[in-house]
Design a protein that fits this description.
This protein is of the alpha/beta class. The chain is about 30% helix and about 15% strand. Strand 2, helix 3 and strand 3 form a beta-alpha-beta unit. The radius of gyration is 20 Å and the shape is globular. About 0% of the residues have low confidence.
Amino acid sequence: MAPDVPDALPPPSGSRPTVLVLRALGLGDLLAGVPALRAVRRAFPGHETVLAAPGSLGSVVRAVAAVDAHFVTEENGRRVPPLRHWRGAPPDLAVDLHGNGPESHDVLAALTPGRVLSYARPDPGHPAPPLWRAAEHERLRWCRFLEAHGIAADPADVRIPPPAAPSPAPGAVVLHPGADAGARRWPTARYATVAAGLRSTGRRVVVTGGPGEEDLCAAVAAEAGLDARDVFAGSLTFGRFSALVAGAALFVSGDTGPAHLAFAHGTPSMTLFGPVAPGLWGPPPDPHHAVLWHPGPPGDPHADEPDPLLLRLDAPRVLEQALRSLGRGDHDGRTATHG
């Protein structure tokens, strides 16, 4: 996706007491954190809720409608960014939704807020501080964390409205073969087989990717016999990409950020999981969303090579599930596994 930062939220105004929330991660992380962000905003209606997140997510921060302002952090990968450029008064409350290590707690504490909520350093005297559970779904983890602090949170509160812009390919099946790590990138040839199979049924199939994925998307399209007009790689702003996903008949991808966007729009989707179980990052229970996964020991989601569990998903099985999803529109949304 190309950046479209003019649509970003404004910076903190300083006109009201502030709740500062740190979640300076990626697209999927932001979307998985929406229920928690909305819960914080509801709990403090008289405060300005500010999200500390990278500037590249500016349009997404606006689209999810979960905070009032955006405090732009460095593009820092998954590391904890410095917050030294905060110029406002100390926040009334700082909430660490970034992780469970002391680093994220400490960069918030350095701003001398009235109070810090974090997994790493629980409030002194808290009768039952929340404990980090490694084997817990990301949405549930942060909602449980807030509930322990008396903030009601609904992990199913993930939906965002479709953008006003029209889809560049309404009703198409959208394949998104890229991922930010090779471990979650299903082979190009298999995506091409699925694309060709879907196209043979009369469906329009388009391929999408972000900056740097142009060659990958072109390879899938060429092998599947798709037209160049059916490739959207590195050129769509977030708003246009969001419209494409919202208007799709089916969205097919690996375990990556755009899959969470399909969940958020309620677009029928299929997500191919490998190193990370869908029980940790998969869609909410909903008949519109199917996942394919081979149970097995967890792998490294940031490794360079495709995970062995992901490679156990073959193209005929994925094509079969896609046709089933398109043909019936009522798959049960449970994890599909096969040997």
